[in-house]
Amino acid sequence: MEVLEENEEEERREEELMKALEISDELHDIETKLSVDQVCGPSDVSDFDWSSIDISQLPSSYKTNSPREKKLLRIADHYLQQYTHLCPDRKPLFLYPVNECGVKKFVSTTVRPTLLPYTELYHWDGCASFVCDYLTMEPLKSPLTPPSSLYSPTTILKYQRGNCFDFSVLLCSMLIGAGYDAYCVNGYATQDICSLDETLEVCPLLRKPQEVPKEITKKPNKYRVKSSLDLQSKFELQQEAKKKAETEATHKNKERGEEKVMEMEKPTRDPLYGLRVHAWVLVLSGKREVPEPFFINPFTGNSHSTMDEHFLGIESVWNHKNYWVNMQDCWNGCKDLIFDLGDTVRWEIMLSETDKPLQMLLDAEEENELFDRNMDDIEDEEEEEKDTSFAMPPTWVAPIQISPREFETRCSQGKKVIMYKKAKLEKWAPYLNKNGLVKRLTVYADLRFHIYKSMEPETERVMEFYNESRVDGLQKRAENATEIKEYFVGRDDFKYFQHTEFSKRGKKISVAGTRTDINSRPIVQMKECFHRNLEKPADEDVAERVFLITEEMIQLTYHLKDKYITASKKEFFKPTENYRKQSEIMTPEMCITYQAGSSVKDKLLHLYKLLQELTEEEKQLKQQVRQSEAEVLNILKIRENEEADVKLTVSIYDTKRNEKRKQQYEAMKNAMEDEFPVHEEQDLDYLAPFLIQIGYPEKMTKGQALRLRDDCLTDFKNRLIAKANIIQARFEKEVEELKKKNQQFQENQSQLSREEEAAFLTDYSETMFRIHILALRLNREKQTAPQKYLALEEKLRKDPRLAVYLSYD
User: What is the mean pLDDT of residues 1-15?
Assistant: First the structure.
């Protein structure tokens, strides 16, 4: 029986092995197809030959490995062997790809923490926005495996392009430099994330902020009022219910239509779901007041929750100090992962933590010192750390630098286009367009048909005005081919709205020397609406006045009187031309009136005068409509001229573009040079004070040259010592004052009020800040003083006036 069971187990293993081989073959076929067809990347990404880049000017650290880097590679190789042995089912780790010079470099040493001198880059969203705008995305050669190379951030910035790993390393370097606890992530994501496909995403400029419902808390009242009788009309309730049902039905139909559109827009099934390799950035909580961990997609610069379903798994994370491997199961994506890197059960660390922190690069001088450190210093450090745990070597990457012009230009060639769902966002560098355009958002009505609004007359547009600065109180004018709507505020006649409808015009006849508005749009109807004038009775105060031009009618509707549900109305029928010639008598058939609450009819004479007034008002209103049309044409003409002749204002601090300011500066500089040519030379001559002592000899002896050198060096040394003594004295003074204040606080602590205690703590904090700054300045002065002394000595040795005598010394 045992033999049979063993045979059955062997058969099962063989079957599972065959299935695994078949699956791997299928994945290999899909991978080759994708790499050939390049479906994993956008079609507009042009091919770039990375083998043609110039590496001759790169530093030596790019082309060789230091002893500590070689030791790190041996440790990483041993770590990879152990990992492969313990986890044979997982993919190989991304540890030491080659750089642009073909040299293997550990991924952590490729991260270069850098704080750039731009305010926008002090925050994570500014860094992410800059990286995604500045670089051009390149897809991975194989969507199933990490790249075989990882170039330095300096090379990526130079050529402004890279894959997701290049994006992540650059962004992580900037975030760590800005003080964030950031890490590069090697994992898996969905196809739209890996291929930078945002056509199904809503544009960030169109997203509506989420409304937070306010909780209304009712205070309990011990007194209760008896409920009043229900006096509401049942008919009105039925009408409201009917309207509500119609609204719900319309809303449901709209939702069904949207669901159908959503189904049509759903992406097709991805055969490589869960297998596509992607790199992004993880920011942990703790530093820079980050409340909880979150992801940053370097392609878009958007932040995502660690529960986001677009991120499907993590293999490893790293920063400039260490490398961690995820040992948690990613069957549910990243939703169940715990990002506590100190937990050795969930995260396997490569290098054991050391108590000695890695020195942060504070300024350019220290960066260059660390970067140009010679091999002897490195070997000495290795001998000191033989008995301790191995620490990560310093980065091999040169300092990351971005010029103000590059930071301002941002996008590659100054322009970037992003396609969103039913929208297109275009970005330009400042001053690239002559009209000053830097951003344009085009919103499409649907996925097929587009509506464009132009500056042509008689097209759809809305104009808004400052009603306080206009005599007619016009606030807004909405126009299209068939109507004009005008809204008014603060008029004496209480008019607040005017609506004019037009019909199609006939064939336009252009005659030389005639007016351009001879073929204006025929007016069909003019309607005016008025607010209530309390100085008039309601049945004499017009609420709405309509002039039906084609029907030769005038309709008047008055305001409602109190406790009335119907308004008074009058309808006038204008007489024809033949009738006007024959007689001017008003007949009852020419006017239909309704007087709310009264059966008394108006006299014909009164109605006749009212008709004459309305006829005159109609003529004036027609003239106003034509004036409005002319005003629109005039505004469009002005706007067209402004767009054709745009003059951008340049800041006086922008010396590269401000030609006027540049010319003034050069003229002032030339005038200063012409006025003070000798003094300038004397100011630049650092040996002038010492040459005066020996009388400016035409030829110096060797003794005079040696004395001149010694005096100059001695004076410079005394100045350095005096400066250090001043800083030391200030430091000791602040420390002594702090001790006195602390002693007084300890003695009188029980008698101090809260305000006095808060004032002491504020003063204490400021004093500690001054002490810290003085300590830094004193330490820096002690470090740089020998270098400055040696630099002056070398400068004296090369000075043409002393070089002849000092070369033999």
Answer: 51
> Quick one: pLDDT band at residue 316, thresholds 50, 70, 90?
very high
Rounded-to-integer distance, Cα 418 and Cα 530, Å: 48
**Digit-coded pLDDT (tens) for 405-436:** 888 888 777 788 888 877 888 888 787 777 77
Per-residue model confidence as pLDDT tens digits over 27-37: 445 444 444 34
Distance CA 728, CA 723 (A): 9
> What are the structure tokens assigned to 124, written together?
């994570």
Q: What are the backbone dihedrals phi and psi of residue 779, each rounded to the nearest 5 degrees, phi first?
A: -65, -45
Residue 776 in this model has a pLDDT that exceeds 70: yes
> CA distances (Å), 529 to each of 51, 487, 603, in order?
74, 10, 26
Single-letter residue type at 40: C
Neighbours of 387 (CB within 10 A): 6
- Tokens 């001043």 belong to which residue? 726
DSSP for 59-95, please give it: -GGGTS--HHHHHHHHHHHHHHHHHHHH-TTSPPP--
> Residues near 750 by Cβ (< 8 Å), separated by ≥ 6?
none
Q: Residue 447: what pLDDT?
A: 56
DSSP state of 261: H
Query: Where do we find the tokens 């980065």?
Result: 395
Owner of token pair 């004395």: 707
Neighbours of 318 (CB within 10 A): 25
C-alpha span between 70 and 692 (Å, rounded): 58
Average pLDDT of every residue of the chain: 80
- Residue 696's pLDDT is 76
Q: Is the pLDDT of residue 334 over 80?
A: yes
Residue of 680, 768, 677, 678 lying closest to 731 (CA atoms):
768
pLDDT in tens, 682-729: 456 777 777 777 777 777 888 888 888 888 888 888 999 999 999 999
Per-residue pLDDT at 582 exceeds 70: no
711-718 long-range CB contacts below 8 Å, 24 or more apart?
Answer: 712/686, 712/687, 712/792, 712/796, 713/789, 713/792, 713/793, 713/796, 715/689, 715/690, 716/788, 716/789, 716/792, 717/789
Distance, CA of 355 to CA of 353 (rounded, Å)? 7
640-646 mean pLDDT? 79
Residue 809 pLDDT > 60? no
Helix (H) or strand (E) holding 377: helix 375-384
Q: Are 106 and 69 in contact (CB under 8 A)?
A: yes
How far apart, in Å, are the Cα atoms of 451 and each of 9, 201, 455, 461?
68, 20, 13, 12
Residue 175, pLDDT score: 94
With contact defined as beta carbons under 8 Å apart, do 130 and 261 qualify? no
Whole-angstrom distance, CA of residue 450 vs CA of residue 514? 38
Taking the alpha carbons at both ends of the chain, their separation in whole angstroms is 98
What's residue 371's pLDDT?
Answer: 40
Cα 143 to Cα 506: distance, rounded to the nearest angstrom: 63
Do residues 430 and 408 touch, judged by C-beta distance below 8 A? yes
